Structure to design on (719 residues):
């Protein structure tokens, strides 16, 4: 975590450096302001005119060229390399204004050197305030970067030693005492404890951990000692994934920002041209060189690409930070904008609405139950399907039969041979396909299915032996979340590979009226596409099996399982597997987008009003600079106000 | 194709990020660039043949400093 530490100090050192410049510049700028104001408002000159000019030039020099040096240097370099930035405008404005002080000795022009120093002092002040506000805006994200443990206690050569986190290897046994951070992702091998995972998943209740539980690095062990075998280190950990995801998202664009970006790209050269035009115009029409200089300096310093350029990213950053704290990860800025147009929410059933961990609930067998389980578990052992796992868990066999010719028939079941017997296990579709009659079992199957249970028909040599019913229970907060979505006017649709009966039983339990059942995994994306003809669709799935549907939908929301998240699928990713997170994610997206629009409005409005005013000569250069500084501060501060949104 | 993350020092205004994006896009072999002023990070998608040095140079050309180039 050394590296992250380093980043932190860039930010802090930047604020510190602006602060130093701030104090330094005002020490000289305050006396200058005093001279300027006393002369302007009270007509009092402390010294003779030339002495005043010299004093101001001397006092102003450090303000512009010492404390403002980085700005002047960057700005001038920009002018030569054609990579203009805001510094170019400030540098040009202040240097020209400063030079008028020297030229005023020869009587050409009025002295603007005091103004030059004031502009720089206000510019620095603005930058300081802005950097502080930006620091606040990124607070949550920075916290995330610092979340990782720095050290770990491991057993090496049978001795307990403390090492740096970078030195932890996979398979290392880590010892985590109560109150300590779990150093990295791993699996508990000994011990029992409650672990606070709120910092990465947003889940407020501590999770119970015992042997075989997965634990996430950076979460806090609360009451017992845990012995954890490290399974992931460094870049591969859950936290590292979250960090990368959040960081990458900051660079993504929200479509609404396109215009602002385009303008920011050409802003500085346009303002430069405008300032030159303004200068010649005023000079030509009023023959007042001094006034022409003053006004074009105003034009140079009032124009600020920052408010425009910051409007969107700063809001996105505050929004992302708020999300990260709640286990909601915004992967693409675009999703925030699209979310507003979404009308239909399609939810995958398994693992999204339900726990996704089915259990065997009933067994109906024509043969000995133990035999039925033995052959079923022997085949299902070879499959990764959750239903298969439930059966294997139920059977708890010590020894499995040898299975040959094993085949997974996606969305339908499995087949294989044990000895000379051909075993086919699966749903009705599969039985029909294999010409296996289920007639004698229809009543039982229907009975189970009407209760929302999934039935596995077990057949041997084309004869059905029995039915195993498996049910997946609804997550505790699914009902509440779906009620909220329905109340907000979304059309909620459940999609599943299960049959109609099972699907409807679950749907009615949670309050979903529309069900698309019997959908093969590969067809989910197609179904989403069909629904898209009726409106924008959000698809919510676990991100592992549903990647194509997530991609197809307008906004894909991938639900994490608590220890693993599908990084590549989904525009929004939820670290914890609660549907309430979806409600939060939708609210957060909408609130963030509202903030983005507000900020863009203010940034455009500011420039549209301020630039013509200064071209018209109605703004004093110092006032222009203050207005400019305020414009970017306003945008950043407004973004920080997003935190008040109810999410 | 590879994806790299560049940590950039010295950006302080919206045009800065824009300039760096523009400069990086000019490097041959670079497909996509996003630079975030706020996180001081640039993400570049480019051909494997593009060297870290080329990317660093492109950043330097605009007057900023690439502190680190990491492969994603």
């Amino acid at each position: 975590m050394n590296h992250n530490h380093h980043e932190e100090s860039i930010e802090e050192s930047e604020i510190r450096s602006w602060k130093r410049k701030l104090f330094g510049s005002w020490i000289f700028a305050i006396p200058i302001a005093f001279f300027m104001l006393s002369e302007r408002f009270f007509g009092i000159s402390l010294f003779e005119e030339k002495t005043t000019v010299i004093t101001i030039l001397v006092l102003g020099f450090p303000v512009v060229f010492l404390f403002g040096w980085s700005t002047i240097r960057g700005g001038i370099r920009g002018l030569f390399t054609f990579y203009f930035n805001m510094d170019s405008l400030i540098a040009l404005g202040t240097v020209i204004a400063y030079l008028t002080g020297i030229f005023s000795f020869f009587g050409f022009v009025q002295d603007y050197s005091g103004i030059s120093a004031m502009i720089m002092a206000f510019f620095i002040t603005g930058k300081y305030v802005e950097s502080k506000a930006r620091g606040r805006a990124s607070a949550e994200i920075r916290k995330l970067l610092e979340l990782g443990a720095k050290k770990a206690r491991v057993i090496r050569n049978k001795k307990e030693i403390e090492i740096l986190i970078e030195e932890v290897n996979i398979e290392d046994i880590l010892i985590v005492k109560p109150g300590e951070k779990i150093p990295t992702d791993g699996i508990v091998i000994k011990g029992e404890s409650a672990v606070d995972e709120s910092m990465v998943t947003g889940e407020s209740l501590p999770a119970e951990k015992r042997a075989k539980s997965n634990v996430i690095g950076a979460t806090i062990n609360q009451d017992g000692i845990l012995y954890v075998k490290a399974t992931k280190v460094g870049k591969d950990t859950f936290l590292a994934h979250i960090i990368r995801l959040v960081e990458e998202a900051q660079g993504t664009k929200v479509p609404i920002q396109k215009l602002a970006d385009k303008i920011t790209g050409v802003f500085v050269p346009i303002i430069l041209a405008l300032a030159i035009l303004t200068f010649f115009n005023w000079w030509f029409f009023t023959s007042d060189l001094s006034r022409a200089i003053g006004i074009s300096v105003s034009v140079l310093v009032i124009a600020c690409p920052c408010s425009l350029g910051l409007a969107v990213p700063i809001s996105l950053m505050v929004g992302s930070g708020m999300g990260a704290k709640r286990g909601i990860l915004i992967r693409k800025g675009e999703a925030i904008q699209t979310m507003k147009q979404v009308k239909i929410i399609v939810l995958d059933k398994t693992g999204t609405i339900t726990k996704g961990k089915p259990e065997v609930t009933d067994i109906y067998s024509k043969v000995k139950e133990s035999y039925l389980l033995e052959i079923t578990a022997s085949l299902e052992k070879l499959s990764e399907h959750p239903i298969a796992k439930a059966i294997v868990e139920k059977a708890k066999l010590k020894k499995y039969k040898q299975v040959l010719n094993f085949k997974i028939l996606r969305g339908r079941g499995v087949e294989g041979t044990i000895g000379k017997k051909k075993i086919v296990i699966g749903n009705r579709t599969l039985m029909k396909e294999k010409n296996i009659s289920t007639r004698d079992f229809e009543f039982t199957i229907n009975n189970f299915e009407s209760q929302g249970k999934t039935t596995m028909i077990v057949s041997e040599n084309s004869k059905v032996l029995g039915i195993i019913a498996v049910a997946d229970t609804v997550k505790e907060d699914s009902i509440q979340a779906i009620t909220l979505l329905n109340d907000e006017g979304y059309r909620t649709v459940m999609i599943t590979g299960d049959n109609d009966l099972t699907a409807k039983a679950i749907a009615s339990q949670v309050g979903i009226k529309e069900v698309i059942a019997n959908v093969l995994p590969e067809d989910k994306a197609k179904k989403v596409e069909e629904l898209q003809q009726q409106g924008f669709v959000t698809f919510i799935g676990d991100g592992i099996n549903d990647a194509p549907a997530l991609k197809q939908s307008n906004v894909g929301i991938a639900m994490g399982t608590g220890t693993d998240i599908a990084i590549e699928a989904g525009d929004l990713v939820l670290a914890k597997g609660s549907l309430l997170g979806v409600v939060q994610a939708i609210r957060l997206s909408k609130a963030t987008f509202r903030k983005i629009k507000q900020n863009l409005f203010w940034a455009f409005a500011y420039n549209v009003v301020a630039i013509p005013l200064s071209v018209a000569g109605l703004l004093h250069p110092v006032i222009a600079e203050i207005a400019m500084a305020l414009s970017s501060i306003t945008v950043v501060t407004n973004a920080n106000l997003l935190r008040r949104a109810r999410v | 194709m590879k994806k790299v993350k560049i940590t950039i020092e010295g950006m302080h205004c919206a045009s800065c990020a824009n300039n760096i994006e523009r400069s990086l896009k000019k490097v041959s072999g670079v497909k996509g660039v996003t630079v975030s002023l706020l996180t001081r990070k640039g993400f570049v998608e480019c051909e494997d043949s593009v060297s870290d040095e080329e990317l660093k140079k492109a950043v330097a050309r605009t007057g900023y400093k690439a502190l680190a180039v990491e492969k994603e």
Confidence is low (pLDDT under 50) at residues 1-8 of chain A. The first helix of chain A runs from residue 2 to 42. The CA atoms of residues 133 and 636 of chain A lie 6 Å apart.
